[in-house]
Amino acid sequence: PAPRILLIGEGNFSFAAALCEAAAAARFVATCYEGEEEVSARALAARNIRRLRDGGAEVLFSVDCTKLKDYFLPSDRMFSCVYFNFPHCGRKAGVVKNRELLAQFFSSCAEVLAEKGEVHVALCNGQGGTPADRPRREWHNSWQIVAVAAGARFILSDVRPFSAESIHGYKCTGYRSQDKSFSVEGALNHIFTRSTPLLHRQPVVCHMQLGSRRVSFQVPQMLVDKINRDFLELSSEHPVRTVKEKLTAVLSQTFPIQSIDCSIPLLHQGHVSGGCHSNVFWIVLKPEQNASTEQMANGLANGVLFSHIDFCKDADNNGCMKVQEGNVISEQYFLRPSLLLYVQTLIERDTFLPGTLGILCGPVFRKCPISPRSLPVFHEVVFVGAVDKGMESGFIQLLVDTIRSGIYSLHHTVSGCKLNIALQEATGFEATEPDDFAASASQITKIQHSICVQTDALGSCEEDFCVGTVGTACAKSNGLVVVFASLNLDLLAMLVCGIADWRMLWTSDERFLSQFLGGELRLFKSFSLYPPSYVHDVSFWVPERERFDEVTFHTIARQVSCETVVSIQLIDSFQHSETARKSLCYRLTYQSCDKALSCQEAAEMQLLFRKEIQRCLRVTLR
């Protein structure tokens, strides 16, 4: 069917007439706020109305842009595009009134727009309040169009110059409700589309085989939209899988490749050493006392059920969680934080061939502070080889050079940007990570180097960021030295495709994957431009004689905000001179990269966050 286009707030109908003649195949409905008698008295408007009607367009008068559904039957409300050029309340209305007008207009549009339709809003230079404006007004003095549209679940998907001179016969009119023109130099056309809804996460139970037992566990709330996404499956066209496949192809030119065909469980049993017990997602294994009818139907009546501890502060000295119910101590499991936990087991298998390069990949899960490159879940690929003692240095160098060449080639082919990949001595977290996540004291794995990238593709190039690690381990039975390289596929996909926000990799919006059809890597073009951000502060007293767990603090923020908190900054720390009580003040910034997030939604999330930190961390709000 021919697209239906709705034009709102026409003054002299010159834009509608020009558009109608340029796109004759579409069906047009042109409207104005004024009555027919008043408009028809103006010669230019009357002439354009005749042009429209001669072209088959429908012309409506006295149409209120905030009540659009009232003018159309339900069957006639699905417009493919709605235009509103230079909306204004009239006279000397200020920015607040014009924001209110836009808010009501967008809410009204949501009721008459097709699911994949567009809303075009042209504003004078500076009014929109986005970085596209030149010059850009102060936020408080703009119409804040992106934030206003978010309230009706619209996102800004494109911004184009409004070229009045290219529209044949167009004459802007309506300056302060008068039949006179105004300047449209530098004006911008803002194109909005519907957003996918914010997730209201419901509990999800994951079923799996663990050894000889059929088990299930409740997925941590902040991970429910990230479990079982199958990005690495053969049918997937996700860039994470494409990067993995292309890197493997490069490595296969230097090393014999052996795909490690084994099922690695999501859950790992054991303990973590050091202070890392709060950095993993703990799952508590409990015997199932009274299986529900549904669980019996699923064959779980004789199995076990896992529950999840989101924010537990109690652990023994080994970082091992103990949950006691009556006289029963539960078993301790956590979601795997790294595939390196399984390197030793795999290398000892009879099926593993020395001299080959084994490939192991899958999602891993870690609690971590909120930052642009700290990913609570990502896809890890581990390349594993075994060589005679004394040969490991040469093998590591060859492996790193091949990986570096593969990353550089992928990045250059897609973006053409300069890229510097360096091998650095591992320090801090990277150097101790495998020991902290060790399954047992007998597993000795040592990370020796970090693979770091410096580029301007993701913004500032002043700071290197780590995309992987290289190290060795001692095989226990045959005396060989195990060499491994672990890469973060998500960070590599971001690097290669120019994806600035890791959350975009997990979006459910089809406009993301549609850019990588056929598994082709290309530069990503965001479908949500200049998303609004909202800042909220929280201050509280820390419980006396307790260590404040900042990782848990960040994890709570991730969970209650559905991953819309993009930054947490400590802006003040104070210790009372008399009581020695410590007070902290943090600033949280809310922003969504792919969905509409309104000011009200962010405020509601902040209220929930305050309640949760009070409940889980036992802080006293100020």
UniProtKB/TrEMBL annotation:
So which domain of life are we looking at? Eukaryota
Location relative to the cell: Mitochondrion matrix
* Signal peptide span: none
Which GO terms are recorded in the biological process aspect for this UniProt protein? rRNA base methylation; translation
Matching InterPro entries: aa-tRNA-synth_II/BPL/LPL (IPR045864), BMT5-like (IPR019446), Fdx_antiC-bd (IPR005121), Fdx_antiC-bd_sf (IPR036690)
List the molecular function annotations (GO) for this entry.
ATP binding; phenylalanine-tRNA ligase activity; rRNA (uridine-N3-)-methyltransferase activity
- Name the EC number(s): 6.1.1.20
Q: Which residues form the FDX-ACB domain?
A: 529-622
SUPFAM superfamilies reported for this sequence: Anticodon-binding domain of PheRS
Catalytic activity annotation: tRNA(Phe) + L-phenylalanine + ATP = L-phenylalanyl-tRNA(Phe) + AMP + diphosphate + H(+)
Primary location group: mitochondrion
Q: Which family does it belong to?
A: Belongs to the class-II aminoacyl-tRNA synthetase family.
Name of the protein: phenylalanine--tRNA ligase
Organism, scientific name: Nothoprocta pentlandii
